[in-house]
Design the sequence.
């Protein structure tokens, strides 16, 4: 294990040990706070149930992220090319973030029903904002001299966009994606709480009604794992798509 | 004449920066502009290539009056401006790529150029992995690959240390001597100007005018120890010093 991950892992292990210890020493009832070992047991004995609901939630999240990406590109481009549209959209985009997403959940369920659509939209709404803003910033931020170099050579603005601005914006896009995917679970789960027949959010409500606290903990654990996995997945993609970044870093370390 | 810039005038924020600058360049010539820093040399280039408009004057390219030289010249700055996400080879191919001329012939020409600039072993490396001198050589190779007959170079070697600069001056020489390009270059290095140029324009302090035109007329390659070379160098430095003192 590399040194960067060692201490977080150690702290986590210590916390789990302390939790287990305290629950046993004070004899906390299982339905109030189960010990980590109890949660693990629940995990094992309800594996197929958890897996089924996990796949549902995961699908909502992934579709939500893809939808957010599909909307972010055209909107960022439109705002970049048309200053007037930027002035029109930008405040709305900011304002849309002031709306608490969970306040929208009942509406979405009302409009789009218990189907997957309302959950996908919730996830997309949360992810969309950081992606779009970062993408726009990256496209705008591109080195003026690089843009001029191509312009002087007679390049069209689409060539400048494609050959300079997009590659320049990629690190920004990935930064936005990392923020987005780590909170994407929130949207999906809230959507499921308000109206769903499947998914981890639904399972949690169900477990809550039956006082199966350890199942809730297991769900939380899985949701965190999804968030983490998505985050590191994006980081992996970043390495694949931005090989020059890695070279730069390596080179700087070597000095 | 390859290029005539006649009586170019430009004000910026009400402040005159170019006050009737005229520069000429013949086919295959190497012409340099020297002048105190901040006098308007880069602004002059920006007008020529269309990055800023001018308030008066005209630009004639190959006998035709043009708005500016956009699409007609290859332009290079002090910064190498290599795209960090592209390998050297792909950087060098940028020009043909935007002109839609990528083919096998172009690819082999790019490789030949890289080896002329002694970069053949680094074709697949990223700019961040290379030294300043190598990056500037790559930028020169890329500038040539734009396939234009006229090159505009704005202090192309200024970011380099003295020794690297010396080494790269022979590559600049090759632009006209070997590749047959017409070159208009800005430099603050008087020796560099004298080594390379057929003609030198000495600009005044802000606002820029042409203070003096020098036809160098010595055989190339030149020696920095030559008597006329040293005389001219002293003269030009003297004039620049005078301008700096008048200017401030
Ligand atoms: N974008 C700008 N806006 C206003 N003034 C500028 C701008 N760029 C340069 N200048 C002014 O124009 C003058 C000439 O600048 P420049 O052409 O870059 O000089 P040089 O290249 O000869 O060193 C400078 O004195 C500077 O103050
Ligand atoms: Mg300058």
Sequence:
């Amino acid at each position: 294990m590399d040194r960067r991950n060692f201490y977080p892992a150690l702290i986590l292990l210590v916390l789990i040990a302390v939790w287990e210890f305290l629950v046993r020493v004070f004899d906390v009832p299982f339905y109030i706070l189960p010990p980590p070992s109890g949660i693990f047991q629940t995990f094992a004995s309800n594996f197929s149930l958890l897996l089924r609901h996990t796949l549902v939630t995961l699908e909502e999240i992934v579709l939500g992220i893809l939808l957010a990406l599909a909307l972010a590109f055209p909107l960022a481009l439109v705002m970049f090319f048309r200053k007037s549209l930027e002035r029109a959209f930008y405040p709305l985009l900011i304002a849309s973030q002031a709306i608490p997403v969970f306040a929208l959940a009942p509406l979405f369920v009302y409009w789009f029903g218990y189907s997957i659509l309302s959950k996908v939209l919730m996830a997309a709404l949360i992810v969309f904002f950081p992606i779009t803003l970062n993408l726009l910033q990256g496209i705008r931020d591109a080195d003026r001299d690089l843009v001029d170099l191509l312009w002087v050579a007679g390049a069209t603005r689409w060539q400048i966009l494609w050959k300079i601005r997009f590659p320049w914006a990629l690190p920004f896009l990935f930064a936005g994606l990392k923020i987005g995917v780590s909170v994407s679970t929130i949207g999906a789960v809230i959507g499921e709480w308000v109206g769903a027949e499947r998914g981890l959010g639904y399972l949690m409500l169900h477990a809550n009604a039956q006082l199966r606290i350890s199942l809730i903990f297991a769900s939380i654990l899985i949701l965190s794992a999804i968030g983490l996995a998505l985050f590191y997945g994006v980081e992996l993609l970043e390495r694949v798509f931005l090989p020059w970044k890695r070279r730069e870093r390596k080179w700087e370390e070597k000095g | 004449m390859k290029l005539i810039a006649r009586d170019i005038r430009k004000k910026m924020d009400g402040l005159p920066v170019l006050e009737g600058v005229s520069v000429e360049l013949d086919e295959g010539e190497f012409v340099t502009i020297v002048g105190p820093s901040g006098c308007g040399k880069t602004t002059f280039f920006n007008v020529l290539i269309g990055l800023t408009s001018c308030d008066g004057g005209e630009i004639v390219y190959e006998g035709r009056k043009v708005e500016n030289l956009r699409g007609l010249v290859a332009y290079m700055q002090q910064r190498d401006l290599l795209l960090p996400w592209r390998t050297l080879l792909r950087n060098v191919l940028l020009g043909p790529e935007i002109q839609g001329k990528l083919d096998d012939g172009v690819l082999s020409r790019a490789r030949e150029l890289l080896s002329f600039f002694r970069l053949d072993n680094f074709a697949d490396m990223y700019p961040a992995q290379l030294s300043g001198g190598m990056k500037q050589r790559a930028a020169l190779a890329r500038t040539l690959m734009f396939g234009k007959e006229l090159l505009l170079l704005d202090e192309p070697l200024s970011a380099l240390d003295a020794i690297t600069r010396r080494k790269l001056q022979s590559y600049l020489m090759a632009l006209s001597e070997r590749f047959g390009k017409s070159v208009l270059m800005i430099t603050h290095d008087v020796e560099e100007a004298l080594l390379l140029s057929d003609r030198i324009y000495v600009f005044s302090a802000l606002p820029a005018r042409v203070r003096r035109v020098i036809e160098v007329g010595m055989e190339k390659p030149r020696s920095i120890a030559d008597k006329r070379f040293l005389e001219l160098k002293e003269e030009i430095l003297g004039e620049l010093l005078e301008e700096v003192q008048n200017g401030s």
In short: The helical segments of chain B are 41-49, 88-92, 94-98, 104-116, 132-145, 162-177, 190-196, 227-247. The CA atoms of residues 32 and 193 of chain B lie 6 Å apart. Chain B has a mean pLDDT of 94. Chain B touches chain A through 26 residues (CB under 8 Å).
